[in-house]
Specification:
Chain A: InterPro entries: ATPase_csu/dsu_sf (IPR036079), ATPase_V0-cplx_csu (IPR014272), ATPase_V0-cplx_csu/dsu (IPR002843), V-ATPase_V0D/AC39_subunit (IPR050873), V-type_ATPase_csu/dsu (IPR035067), V-type_ATPase_csu/dsu_dom_3 (IPR044911). The complex is a heterodimer of chains A (about 350) and B (about 80). Chain A is mainly α and about 350 residues long. Chain A has 18 helices and no strands. Chain A has a domain at about 195-305: V-type ATP synthase subunit C fold (Up-down Bundle). Chain B is elongated, with a radius of gyration of 22 Å. Classes of the chains: A mainly alpha (about 350), B mainly alpha (about 80).
């Protein structure tokens, strides 16, 4: 992992592990689900989120404040990691963080498609990726989807988006564009990984992530009963599914479930799968996928302490935390009870 | 062939027997030097990890310091050789 005899990974991973252990745990969540939005904001002010809450506190309030603070803090934390890292570690982390570029592009596309205002879209962006502020401003200024495709022509999403734009014009739905963004992201993620045991494990983790994403998409389509071809959503690179079989699998949930439980992830997900069969609940299955992925990343982090995996596992855990706090805040605002909210959380 | 080398070999043997290529003192110095080098190498990783941890939480300073200098024991053990030599 080290480049030129440096000891950068040790430094980065020690810091990341310290941050990881500072994330909210069971106990904090148990307190949080019983609080109102204002109390949550105050609670956050006394934690890692202090700077953001104070900076944004004068402009926003309630759930909005919490949400902006969460996004800002997440972006800051991930930029911090990039600041510390160097050499190959930097490269691998930067590649993974392009996930947020993909997220931002998709958010902008959806915003234009749905006719949302510039401010609304802006508040949902997470500036943790590689795009600089200027590019993001230009994306926000775009009013046509064609403009977005043009602006992105120099980036890694360029080629895929251009090809998908024709499909979009024909069909009038966003699916091909969003899919092109996802594909571009996962392709560059698996590209040029150095051969070795460590890289092999990392690749396995990425493949699991892709498999889970495919499984989730297929299940959602199967459940919604919408007339969509799951093969359009399919992301290459996983090991569990092939594009040709996913269409057939998505038509019957039971076959899909048995395929997942027979796979190498079967043991890890067995509890969730029986839930899915019994309770008919997609939500708990998706939560289980999330926590299985997190657990997988953690395990890898212990097997290869000086690789990129502990950092990835922190990134995932931080994302989960942000999702959890947002779910709590939104849930409390909507008047859900503590138990109902607790079911929504991914706690490890 | 072997007959031709034989006188040379005995000559070499005689020479090493009379004065070793590395004297006792030099061997002891070498062992300390290599041990110090190894300690430095070990401390490199621990030191940077300790700095990372301290940057996040200053109360770890003492722990970090202790862990960082632990490999120095290698050098101290190697010093024993100097007195034995």
């Amino acid at each position: 992992m080290s480049t030129a005899g440096g000891s950068n990974p040790e430094y980065v991973i020690a810091r990341v592990r310290a941050r990881r252990s500072a994330l909210f745990g069971d106990e904090e969540y148990r307190k949080l689900v019983r609080m109102g939005p204002a109390e949550i904001a105050r609670f956050m002010e006394e934690s890692e989120y202090e700077t953001e809450i104070n900076a944004l506190g004068s402009r926003f309030s309630g759930v909005d404040l919490i949400e902006y603070a969460l996004n800002a803090n997440m972006a800051k934390q991930f930029n911090d990691i990039l600041d510390w890292a160097g050499g190959r570690l930097y490269d691998l982390i930067a590649r993974y963080l392009r996930k947020f570029d993909a997220w931002n592009v998709k958010t902008v596309l959806r915003g234009i498609y749905a006719g949302s205002s510039r401010e609304e879209v802006k508040s949902d962006l997470i500036r943790a990726g590689e795009f600089d502020d200027r590019l993001i401003e230009r994306l926000l200024d775009a009013t046509e989807i064609e403009e977005v495709v043009e602006i992105l022509s120099g980036t890694m999403f360029g080629d895929g988006l251009e090809a998908a734009f024709e499909d979009y014009e024909e069909a009038g739905v966003l699916v091909p564009l969003e899919n092109a963004v996802d594909r571009a992201f996962y392709e560059q993620l698996l590209e040029n990984l150095v051969v070795g045991e460590e890289a092999e494990q990392y690749r396995e983790f990425l493949e699991a992530e892709i498999d889970f994403r495919n499984a989730r998409n297929a299940l959602r389509i199967a459940r919604s009963g919408a007339d969509l071809d799951p093969a359009d959503y399919f992301i290459e690179g996983g090991t569990l599914f092939r594009a040709s079989e996913i269409t057939a699998l998505a038509t019957s949930t039971s076959e899909l479930v048995s395929k997942i439980s027979d796979s190498q992830y079967g043991d890890r997900l067995s509890g969730a799968i029986s839930d899915l069969e019994a309770a008919d609940s997609l939500i708990s299955f998706e939560r289980a996928l999330d926590s299985a992925l997190l657990e997988y990343a953690d395990t890898l982090g212990y097997v290869f302490p000086l690789s990129v995996t502990p950092v990835i596992s922190y990134i995932l855990a931080k994302e989960r935390e942000v999702d959890n706090i947002r779910a709590i805040a939104r849930g409390r605002e909507a008047g859900l009870g503590p138990d109902e909210i607790e079911e929504e959380l991914v706690i490890q | 062939m072997i007959e031709a080398i034989e006188p040379l070999m005995t000559a070499l043997q005689n020479e090493t027997a009379s004065s070793p290529a590395i004297t006792e003192g030099a061997a002891a110095a070498l062992s300390v030097g290599i041990a110090a080098f190894a300690a430095g190498y070990a401390e490199r990783g621990i030191g940077s990890a300790a700095m990372g941890a301290i940057a996040e939480d200053e109360s770890l300073f003492v722990n970090g310091l202790i862990l960082t200098v632990l490999p120095e024991t290698l050098v101290i053990l190697a010093l024993v050789v100097v007195f034995a030599a």
